[in-house]
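Supplementary Data S3. Sequence and structure tokens for construct A.
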Amino acid sequence: MQAIVWQDHFFRERNMRVPIMRRSLRNMEYYMGKDPGGSFVALDGKKVIGSILSHTWGSVGWFGPLEVNPVCQDKGYGKSLVAASIDYLKSRGCTTIGCETMASSPRNIAFYMKQGFKAKAISHVLYKRLAPVLPDAEVPGTRPFDSGKDLAGCKEMWEAIVPGLDYSPELASLTAGKLGEAWVVDTEAGPAHAIVHTYEMFEESQNAIIKLMVAGKNDDAIAGKLLDRCEMAGAIAGKTGMFLRTYDANPPELNWFFKRGYELQGNSVRLILQGQDEGADMLHVSCWSG
């Protein structure tokens, strides 16, 4: 169903016929494993015709992807799925609730705004082609994440972004699912850190994905080291490209990525139903997009 939904979306809104790209089983297990109680489906009889996945990061909750079979859209299934996810996120204590959707889709944006969401800022999809590197290559000043040593300091940095924000589920799922690597640069403000996924998000994908980077208050030099190490991890794993999403309300500025070889691939709109948006002084790369 997922592939059909996105094929229909691109044809309807952009008049584009795109090849079928199916999420890998590993990708779905990663999403569902973090919040199994927040995974919902819509049924027509016994047939699954829609689904939504919820994600909790402490006080911050978001959902995505939301998918409804094209022949069943505009019948209230999507609205019901969103309502179920919101109820779940509230039950988990989330005080900030939102999502991201394609900026090129007025239909999607209107759908969420009719349910009380407000558009905040743009989230950019960036891509870089990776050059091959030697397996023993290093980035000076970086080291592997150590939960016992680093987690408390990471939580202090997350608290500066949004009170109660907790990325621990991402670090736990990284280890449990062997999804990639986490790297740290020690700073006076705490352990600046990044997570890179080198698993296959889509079947036959050749790309890695930076899921998270927190590098202190506007510290471009530290962010550069973390980005270099994530790119190196992707290249060593045999990936040919790197994706990331960066929220426009946070540093670093988009030009910083352009200077490092990234290209803009697309944009999403971040919408918030309730709660506090992210602070704008902590250098922070993440996204609310499934």
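Construct B, processed identically:
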Amino acid sequence: NIDQIPQSFEEDLLFLTLRTLGLGAATAFLAIIFSLLLSLSKRWNKSIILRITSFLAGIGYSIPGTVLAIFMLTVIKNPDYYVYLLIWGYVTRFLTISKGSIDSALERISPSIDEAAIGLGANNFRVIKEVHIPLLTGPAVVGTLLVFIDTIKELPITFLIRPFDFDTLSVRIYSYALDGRIGEAIFPAILVIILGLIASSTLIPSLEKKSN
């Protein structure tokens, strides 16, 4: 309803936007760090335990957010930890995205490059630092931004796990829509779109470099 559209920008939308940005940034950072650790470890260590761990880390995206959130709430019932539980839920769900980006990039790095570097006297850490990390920078940026975009618009996990009165933009949109206040949902919806567009536009240079 057009009459429901606020005539001015609601002050608390700024705090909701900053909170949404913070959750997205924290999740994206943790997801890419875990992805790098898992993918690089699997490249150097072929143990069955590491392979199983890497596989399990990559199936979170196939689990519905609602199911994942309910499972986590049964494991940890202390509301004091719900913010950390929320970020854990995001990382568990979206780790597949960042890990897939890193895995596909590592597959394009020939093992002979590692062997040549080791043959010249470099240890594993130096090979990772001077060979892998520079080649993985672009894919890591892509994976980070994709996780960020998915996190800021994630609803089921956020709605179920968030502490009391801890809204994000997606939760506020859902709450307004549930109450039939469609007009009031316009501003937070526009903010989500803007954040997604900014992150998506940042992806373009990285994708172009990746294709080249």
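The mean pLDDT is 86. DSSP finds nine helices and no strands in the chain.
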